[in-house]
Amino acid sequence: MTVQGLFATEASNLGKSARTRARLMDAAVQLFARDGFEATSVNEIARQAGVVNGTFYVHFRDRDEIAAAVALAIGQNVVRQLDEAMVGIEDAVERSSLATRRFIDLAASQPDWGAALVRAVLTFRDLRDSMIAYLRADLQRGVDQGLFTVAIDDLLIDTFASMTLGALAGRLRGDFGPEAGARVSELQLRMLGVPADRAREVCGRDVPALTLELAPLPKGLAKAG
Amino acid sequence: MTVQGLFATEASNLGKSARTRARLMDAAVQLFARDGFEATSVNEIARQAGVVNGTFYVHFRDRDEIAAAVALAIGQNVVRQLDEAMVGIEDAVERSSLATRRFIDLAASQPDWGAALVRAVLTFRDLRDSMIAYLRADLQRGVDQGLFTVAIDDLLIDTFASMTLGALAGRLRGDFGPEAGARVSELQLRMLGVPADRAREVCGRDVPALTLELAPLPKGLAKAG
DNA sequence: CCCAAATTTGGGATATCTGTCAATTGTGCC
DNA sequence: GGCACAATTGACAGATATCCCAAATTTGGG
Fold first, then answer.
1. Does B64 touch chain A (CB under 8 A)?
2. B69-204: CATH superfamily
3. Which among A38, A83, A121, B105 would be 20 to 30 A from A91, CA to CA?
4. Is residue B214 helix, strand or coil?
5. CATH of region A67-204
6. Nearest CA to A32 among A107, A111, A105?
7. Could A39 and B35 be called an inter-chain contact, meaning their C-beta atoms sit closer than 8 Å?
8. What is the pLDDT of residues A98-145, one digit of tens each?
9. Which CATH superfamily is domain A6-60 in?
10. Are B25 and A25 a contacting pair, CB within 8 Å?
């Protein structure tokens, strides 16, 4: 596996069309992350992917379509991995802390994906809404368990998400180090009404970091180009 | 005063060059707010300002220069008005609540300016840093007064700012109503360690709203076109 | 009121972008 | 190995962008 992106790696054992599509998506991720959606042209995506302009239009109708495809894929993969990593954890305080910390570490493990995700969440309402829905259950659980003493509504959830995204953005800018996830998670717990010493204790524990990978490949293949 | 923007209003009694420049800046604010910096062309700014393309380049070297000018002016004006509205308030809890609530209400009172401000803070590091510096003093004051029980560092301040900006963005999207400022301020105070009942009490009080206006004009002029 | 200086205009040279299509090349199935 | 079909190429038309500049217009001090 060379420096190719995650999509291309995943598609490396598929047909040519899928591989080209994956390279276009990897190129789009990089450029979206660096320049934003609006500033990225179809031409540039094609050039970065090493194909000619016309090829792009075989795979995507226009820039919006590839943007949606990329945003959806990133969002789904991050949520899926987070979900898998949290099965069996019942305590809402633990879940909240794990979700925030792993989300940040996961997205920061692939800066291009992380930056594209931040931009996508700010740009695409659908993506934001779907990721926010994921949060609601955990926060409500904390209220049901009597651990959070705050009303769970859209504003609370949105604010919680803003804190997480802000810390992720700071990490991607290089302003914060790996401790950012634990720190912001502690602040979130305090906000929710968890006693300060419990918040500190939970966030002081190490969590094993995840690294971003796509849905696992079929069997024992996954050879490199 | 017609529907002209704030810059043009301010410049209405100045020379022609200043007025044209102001109209370009108003146009840029509107377009940046609607489409973002990257997606806005110089052509479009000039058209929206009612001048011909070439005129733009008399006043600004390129799009980045007008973006910086607009971001700086918006930031300075918002900070100046906030500052003026808080003289004489000593209690850090009150100051924190007032700052958040007035910031949000102020920026929401002129949605174009608000949206441009949100985008600018996310785009221009200088602007973010200067607005964040403004926060630090108030948060540190709260620690000194024994009211906040959290360490004041870059991450805390950045997180506090993310919460405020997130709530502002939600208001501009129409997701939240005028109560958003008070709600998020209460969450911030809880995060900082203010007891929940005191946070609720402070944020339950009404604050007189400010409306955005630029530095006052010289004397009794300010005629409308 | 007049004129020099300041300002704006309109259009042009050049570059890039989008989206399409006929022609070419490559793939994989039989 | 060869063939039918899928995928890619490269070029192009039309739109729009940037940046520049000589000519025309407007401004404001004398």
1. no
2. Tetracycline Repressor, domain 2 (1.10.357.10)
3. A121
4. coil
5. 1.10.357.10
6. A111
7. no
8. 999 999 999 999 999 999 999 999 999 999 999 999 899 999 999 999
9. Homeodomain-like (1.10.10.60)
10. no
